[in-house]
Amino acid sequence: MAFSIKIDSVLFSTKLTPLPNSSFSNNNFASLSLLSRKFPIRRLSIKASSVPSTSTASSQAIKIISMPTKPIEGQKTGTSGLRKKVKVFMEENYLPNWIQALFNSLPPEDYKDGLLVLGGDGRYFNREAAQIIIKIAAGNGVGKILVGKEGIMSTPAVSAVIRKRKANGGFIMSASHNPGGPEYDWGIKFNYSSGQPAPETITDKIYGNTLSISEIKMVDIPDIDLSCLGVTTYGNFSVEVVDPVSDYLELMENVFDFQLIKSLLSWPDFRFTFDAMHAVTGAYAKPIFVDKLGASPDSISNGTPLEDFGHGHPDPNLTYAKDLVSIMYGANGPDFGAASDGDGDRNMILGRSFFVTPSDSVAIIAANAQEAIPYFQSGPKGLARSMPTSGALDRVAEKLNLPFFEVPTGWKFFGNLMDAGKLSICGEESFGTGSDHIREKDGIWAVIAWLSILAYRNKDRKPGEKLVSVADVVKEHWATYGRNFFSRYDYEECESEGANKMIEYLTDLVSKSKAGEKYGNYVLQSADDFSYTDPVDGSVASKQGVRFVFTDGSRIIYRLSGTGSAGATVRIYIEQFEPDVSKHEMDAQVALKPLIDLALSLSKLKDFTGREKPTVIT
Predict the structure, then answer these.
(1) What does the buried/exposed string (b/e) look like for 55-82 if buried means 16 or more CB atoms within 10 Å of the residue's CB?
(2) CB–CB of 527/513 below 8 Å?
(3) Is 435 an active-site residue?
(4) Which end of the chain has a smaller Cβ tally under 10 Å, C or N?
(5) Residue 4 neighbours by CB under 8 Å, 6+ apart
């Protein structure tokens, strides 16, 4: 009556006693708990095998086993799936319950005899989790799983593979930009057939089913060898281990002019550096930037994916990517620097001693896309941003006479607009940028987009002439559109009770506020708790962030983030538009200080949370 999983070539049951050479003991099993087993941190290698292998283990029908289970509290998904500490996912039936609840939430035609993609960011526990997901998928009638070698596949690549292979959907094993390792975070989410994250209608059903689940369906097959490319078949179920880079690389070559970018990187006086942060884009950096675009091999730093991200925090911002920031702001730093996060969907862009805010980045990509990126040669269909993101993109949409959309935080809200042909380029202030080439934000895409802009601006440059730099591009954009000074204050892992009380207080304040009221030197134009009605399907998302908008266009926004695994992250967004070119080079913290002071006093953040300083300032 014990279920077992093969770990590091040794079989253990829930009681951690050795079992015979089978993935299961007996024909039934009671529960799965991996909590008491310690797994070593491993380096991940995804160098493709030269000859993929194919094996048929059994032509007979596979045996489906029903495992009794009980509901487990706390399995409600956030904006990007379910995220908890690794130890929580390793508890008895925690992961199996959620995976089964997902299948219970989908119409059978969305997965029966179908194809699902499985990938992840390489973090600790992914390889063990992959085996669980594969066996539950088979137990529920999935026909085939397409999985990246070693379980590796970036979030953007999963979306790309789903779309190219016309899969029914896919699982992504990642806690995104959160730390990895035995004491840190793990996560899981499901993307639909268009490659976009599952909508709230599905995630709400999943949560509902976690509250009533009574059985888990799995199959009795050995663990799949994820280290070798090839196909393994058991009856009418098969698993194909694939190169996680090839489909994504092919897509990038279709979107961008690789030859134009290669000419930029070949200039001896242009220096490029990319920090993969020991995360999943380390698997993509060399094949794309070095092998295809001709960058120097030493331009890639922290390029080996590690299960604990080298003890780092794989979040590409000024705080956690401090090594890259030091290089870019050092004496004679490189001309262009970039970083991506744990699962490869976020990005940070830097010039020499110059930081490009994510809000400015998406606006600048949109303004230059038609000229610099072949994929957009007919012009973007429309532009969109998340509500907290600065209004810089709005001004580009207005000037280019393009449809514009403001959506809640969460990439799934962009997907419907893309599928309806209304949206091409979009972004979030949380270092997420992307387009309709896939249905996820895409860190590598954003980096190549910036390289495309620089390559286009410098294509007629002659030897000895000054390089058009990142700073030149940004300052020219400000001169044309004005500058939206923007900053975000993050207070991570606050006590949930205090954070929720703060939001309740602000919501009450909003309900009593009136246009024309004075807040220091600012006059209130409107205040609300942001609500969004999807123009495609009419669905409504409410309580998406408390906003105070002033008559000069300045904004203060308060949100609780759903991307952490413990406590609550309070985020405060501050924005102010400045049309005066002479003021554009002010430090954002200086320009925004009166508004920041107002935001802190208005929220009574210190009283509610006890926090005096933010964890991260962007």
Answers:
(1) eeeeeeebeebebebeebeebebbbbbb
(2) yes
(3) no
(4) N
(5) 11, 12, 13, 14, 19, 22, 23, 24, 25, 29
Return the sign of the alpha-carbon dihedral for residues 583, 584, 586, 590: positive
How long a stretch of residues is the chain?
618
* Surface-to-core class of residue 126, CB atoms within 10 Å of its CB (0-12 exposed, 13-18 middle, 19+ buried): buried
What's at 609, amino acid-wise? T
| Structure tokens belonging to residue 430 | 């949380």
Q: Model-level pTM?
A: 0.89
Over residues 405-441, the pLDDT tens digits come to: 999 988 888 999 999 999 999 999 989 999 999 999 9
Query: How far, in whole angstroms, is CA 279 from its chain's centroid?
Result: 12
Convert 456-509 into a string of H (helix), E (strand) and C (coil): HHCCCCCCCCCCCCHHHHHHHHHHHHCEEEEEEEEEEEECHHHHHHHHHHHHHH
User: CB atoms < 10 A from the CB of 309, how many?
Assistant: 29
Q: What distance in Å separates the CA atoms of residue 506 and residue 499, rounded to the nearest whole number?
A: 11
From residue 504, give the alpha-carbon distance in Å to each of 397, 493, 501.
34, 18, 5
Strand ranges in 129-168 using DSSP code E only, listed in sequence order: 144-148
Give me the phi and psi of 22, to 5 degrees please: -150, 150
Q: 267, exposed or middle or buried, with CB in 10 Å at 0-12, 13-18, 19+?
A: middle
What are 110-157's pLDDT values in tens digits?
Answer: 999 999 999 999 999 999 999 999 999 999 999 999 999 999 999 999
Contact between residue 423 and residue 414 where contact means Cβ atoms under 8 Å apart: yes
* Residue pLDDT, tens place only, 374-414: 999 999 999 999 999 999 999 999 999 999 999 998 888 89
% pLDDT > 90, the chain? 80
**Active-site position among 13, 23, 154, 176:** 176
